[in-house]
Amino acid sequence: MSSRRSLCLALIVIGSLVLPLARNAPAITVKPASFDHVEASIPQEVMAGVEFEVVVTFVDRFGNPMPEGWRPPNSFGLSASQPASILPPLLTPKNYMPGFRFRVSTEKVGRLDLTLSDEKGKTVEKWQLAINSGRPEGLSVTMDGEAEVGQTTFVRIRAVDRHGNPVSGYEPERGAFTLEGAPLEEKGDIRTVDRGTFELPISFRSSGQFTVTVRDRRGGLNGVSGTVKVSPAPLASFDVAATPGAPAGEPVLLNIRAVDRFGNTVTDYASRYKGVRLFSGTADIVPDLAPPSSFSEGVAQMRVTATTAGKHVVQVSEIQSNLSSRFELSIAAGPVARIQVTAPDSAVAGEPFPIAIVAMDDYGNRVSSLPQGAVVLLESTGSGRLDPDRVAASSFTNGAARIMVTYQKAEAFDIQARLAGREQAAGPAPVPKDDEKTEAARKAAERAREEAMRARREARLRDTKVSERPATPAPRKPPAPVPAPEPARPSPVQAAPAPRKAPSPPKEAEKEPVREAARKPLRPGVIDRVGVRESVNSAVVTFSTNGITDYTVTTNAKLSRKWIDIEFPNVQPDLPERIEGGEKIVGEVYVEKPRTGKGVRVSVEILPVRIGYDVYQEGDSLILKVTKQ
């Protein structure tokens, strides 16, 4: 074996010495063939918003890229089938290195088509790839733009990436959503509408404009819907608020609100309905109709009046649908306008008998309470005198008093009652307080009449001569004076005009002579003389009545001044309209016709704040003695 190996080595040596040495063949370079088409390096799928690179290479028909230094004949650009960022948008031949490189990104998921075109717009090649959504970063919440209170509507929910693309594979758990930002309630479980899209049924409890915020408690995702305009449900009732305790005959403000069954204001009432009517079985409501035009944003304000005091149930009915509601209207009695007296048919002279006295307003409602300190005066139509003839307000309970009185004279007569300082006679209808223009016009007319009467009286006074005579003997001593009640403010019917006080003569001695009208012959049925005499603390007014004893005495307040009025129903005056009084106790004295048109009324002005007075007969004269308190 070793000899054979040795032989082989020897032959090799001999051969190398005999054969000539061989040379290396030159290297062969193969170049690409001519340009045939383009190829691109593109990923098959990309996440939305992530930038990727597209490399376009020019190759021959064998796929060999064009060699370095080769330049394409034209410029080329890349375009996409949906909004995308492509940089650079166009590459020129000098940019070939070899190959063109484009950077591309898009935020929209789906299929993306890329097209390579030359500068003349000729398409060279097209490629496709898939754009997938990113990870979920929020919720897309959509709703219908309009809804109605109480009706079921749907909240559509889907998970989205940061570019708003739906994220596949998101599956919310039952009860995972929390809804905020609007008064609503869920009406059922969430259900799948489409791949990655879900619906949750809800209903709104209130009307208005709302946005709904949806939170996924599990994944921490959230989203907000657009604005939803929620309309009220159909009209169901009325909510009425009324000013409580308004006096009879005075306006009451009603606030009428149309509401649905959930208590929401029906803001479009004026365009959908016909108005409301008011009705009460215990009181007349004026006006009783609120037209649709009186409603603004579902609320109407109207002023009504009622003249019956008490608590009244008022029905508010919708004219079109007859839907109705009820509310309570509370009406209080007005101020005291008259005093009603009820007495038995017969009584015995000098023995007590009961009478009932009830204070009433202009509309016949009982006035529950009289003004503090008020006094009711009792008067008879006969020639006798009632005892007592005054009833204090403290004697009244709930506007009524029952007292025992006596009458000494056997005759038929009626009993009349009135508040001190007020006449019982009916006056003009009250002016509604809400009609300020009418009230102002009436007051202006009254002031004009007063000024005209004052001018006429002063003109007559200038033509009248008043004589004086020595003081007459002092009359018999009268009984102790009775303090006069504080005069009440008169109603407009009783406010008689009074002229300005004439200047008083200079002070003389402590006792001044009586100033009176000129003495005239005694004539029955005529007052022809009034005299005034003053001292430091008292004054005496003497009326020459020629034996007439039928008279009434009241206190009053006119033009912020106090007066004692003495009415003689069966006589005629033969005196000037104005007689000069004193300056300490008694001011002016006026003689005028009362509003009844019968007899004569003599008004004596009282100057001190507090006085007492007494009236008594002496011969053919009536004596009024006023004492300063």
Layout: helices, strands, pairs:
Blueprint (H helix, E strand, L loop, with lengths): L1 H17 L18 E5 L3 E3 L4 E8 L16 E5 L4 E3 L2 E2 L8 E6 L4 E9 L4 E10 L5 E5 L3 E3 L3 E9 L16 E4 L3 E3 L4 E4 L2 E8 L3 E3 L2 E4 L4 E4 L3 E4 L3 E8 L3 E2 L4 E9 L8 H4 L3 E4 L9 E2 L4 E2 L2 E6 L5 E9 L5 E9 L5 E5 L10 E8 L14 E6 L5 E2 L2 E3 L7 E8 L7 E5 L16 H27 L19 E2 L31 E2 L9 E2 L1 E6 L3 E7 L7 E7 L2 E8 L3 E2 L4 E2 L6 E7 L7 E7 L4 E8 L2 E8 L1
Parallel strand pairs: 2-9, 11-20, 22-29, 39-44
Antiparallel strand pairs: 1-3, 3-7, 4-6, 4-8, 5-7, 8-9, 10-12, 12-16, 13-18, 14-16, 15-16, 17-20, 18-19, 21-23, 23-27, 24-25, 24-28, 26-27, 28-29, 30-31, 31-35, 32-34, 32-36, 33-35, 37-48, 38-40, 40-41, 41-49, 42-43, 43-47, 45-46, 46-47, 48-49
